[in-house]
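Appendix B. Chain record.
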Amino acid sequence: GGDNMTVSNLLDTLKDFKYDKVIVDDRTRWSEFGLDPAATTVTLHFGDTDTVTLWLGKKSPIGYFTYMATSRDNRVFLGGQYLTTALNKTMRDFRYKKIANFKPDSINSFAIDSKEHGAIAFARTEGKFKILKPVLLDADEDALNDFFDEILATRAIDFADTPSDALKGAFTSPLARWNVATSQGANQTFIIAESDKSLWGTYEGAGV
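Structure tokens predicted for this chain:
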């Protein structure tokens, strides 16, 4: 999926952007400013029929500016170079990076199984968590909620769309896995493995 925050921030940058001045009103001169062809092309679709294309060209030799043009007319504009920086994105930048999106208040049960510490299982009973495994005890609610917050704040920094055989093999003997079941009926297991000194994760059944 897409990273809604990254997309939203980029659209806000485009919406709020204001150019500094018009340089020329002559399309035959666009190549002088690196606009024919352009260094970056952005196409915006409004509804079903309205489309606007934005072209970004060379950096200005003076100041922190970039030459740009749109499909609306033949003018070349000078605008802040921060727009070029904001648009210098790859597909990875727009991918959804959060590894979990459950709501802590909705959790019925949670379990962790790691090579280092073994299996620990929790369940919510009468509004409070209890440890069910390895022994029956009251759980530290603050510590558990902090742990949930850490999971929810964790974001991927890379993706293995075509995983190597070594990475696939690492998931046959993972470092840890956690499972969460919620009151909405969701039941998810996340598996963590190490390969080439990096930690990788995937949801059970999603493939590697």
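Further analysis of this model is presented in Appendix C.
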